[in-house]
Amino acid sequence: MNQYLIRANELKEEMVANRRHFHRYPEVRNELFETTKYVREKLEEMGYEVEEICQCGLVAVAGGKKPGKCILIRGDMDALPMPEETGLPFSSENPGAMHACGHDFHMSMLLAAAKILKENEDEIEGTVKICFQPNEETFGGAKDMIDAGILEHPHVDAALAIHIGPMADVATLDFGKGLTMGSADGFDILVKGKGCHGAAPHKGISPINIGVHIYMALQELLAREVNPAEQCTLTVGSMIFGEGATNVIPSEGHLLGTMRGFNAELTKMLKKRVEEIVTGTAKVFGGEAEVKWLFSSPAMYCDPDFTDDVVRYAADVVGAERMIPKKERATGSEDFAYFGERVPSQIFWLGGGVEDPSARISNHNPKVQFSEEALPYGAAVYVQCTMEWLKEHK
Ligand SMILES: [Zn+2]
Ligand SMILES: [Zn+2]
């Protein structure tokens, strides 16, 4: 058995305890004050110096005793703003927050990896930056950490992330090459009309009517202006108009949604067209509308050479038969893509499905559960990949 997996198995009880602590006390966005306090304490106990380079973004560095390159390993820490319905004994005690994306696993795995790296620090042929990132779910955290300089001093040459997945068998590792996950651009369209009595619509301008026309036009934008060979989506997830009255034309309302895709040029064009359609449609009906772009994350690019390397190393941990090349690109997004834009990167999807496949539910669901059997594998993959990659790329 792989030496780091043996060690990670010894740490399993500790990993489970950490994971359950994080699960019980989830925090969202970059307001991870208790979470980062806990992570910092654990890292300091191991002998690390911990730096907070942006709000609730922590970095610790291992190695640096032998010359070599620098590799970054990343775990995200934020939960989702949603209530939990798993019924687990360690369910969320923070109302309206839940680790439904498995980031509690990511922190636990990265802490165990940090411990094993520290135990093997003299053998590290270069430097490992251990990155605890906030605010993945709204796509702000990776960019904040990069803007704060995480990729420099020393310069980072490659980056690896692991995301737990609740649908796959434990300890399978799903990976892709090239563009593997879509970009994401969130929007909030404010539509302004003129409120009036519902019995006298001619005295007002209905923002609902404008909103519905904008909705239709946005769907037609994809159908009529995008090459069918492209893979992209535009979804309006919320239309918020009125206060529940039957006889009031409200004065304004919102359409909220996201665009996903794999072609940055196309996304740029579509964003411009969305703005033109929104303002133009509102004008046709005598109202006004504007688009506010809420967030943006690029498409995830996995460097083929780096991927070949880490797939080879990770196979030593989980077994070659459990390394699963992605069959198709996912339109879902990950802000680790900001790292992928800048340095050779890979994000592995670690299988963490519960034993009974029929009981598996996707992440972001209030009932989702993950198998803690996956924890040692995640920690060992982090360590094996960093140690071996640094050794082979002196
Ligand atoms: Zn998520
Ligand atoms: Zn996630």
Q: Any ligands, ions or cofactors bound here, and which? A: zinc ion
Work out the strand percent: 25-35%
Main sheet? 8 strands, mixed
Main-sheet strand order equals 1-2-4-3-5-16-6-15
Helix content: 25-40%
What's the overall average pLDDT, rounded?
Answer: 97
Unreliable segments of 5+ consecutive residues:
none
Number of helices in the DSSP assignment: 10
* Gross morphology: elongated
Q: From the helix content, strand content and strand pairing, which structural class follows?
A: alpha/beta
Q: Please report the total strand number as a whole number.
A: 16
The quaternary state of the protein chains shown equals single chain
Rg of Cα set: 23 Å
Tell me the distance between the termini. Answer: 26 Å
Element order: H for helix, E for strand? HHHEEEHEHEEEEEHEEEHEEHEHEH
Provide an overview of this structure.
The chain has 394 residues and is α/β, with parallel strands linked by helices. It is built from 10 helices and 16 strands. The protein has helices at residues 3-10, 12-24, 33-46, 103-119, 141-147, 207-225, 264-284, 304-318, 337-342, 375-392; strands spanning 50-54, 57-63, 69-76, 126-133, 158-165, 173-175, 178-181, 183-192, 196-197, 232-241, 248-249, 252-261, 288-297, 300-302, 323-325, 345-351. An 8-stranded mixed β-sheet has the order 1-2-4-3-5-16-6-15, sandwiched between helices. The chain has a 4-stranded antiparallel β-sheet with strand order 10-12-8-13, covered by helices on one side. Strands 7-14 form a two-stranded antiparallel sheet. α4 (103-119) links the parallel β3 (69-76) and β4. α3 packs parallel to α4, α6 (207-225) packs antiparallel against α7 (264-284) and α8 (304-318) crosses α10 (375-392). The protein starts with a helix and ends with a helix. The model has no long low-confidence stretch (mean pLDDT 97). It binds zinc ion (ZN) (2 copies). Residues 101, 103, 136, 163 line the site of one zinc ion (ZN).
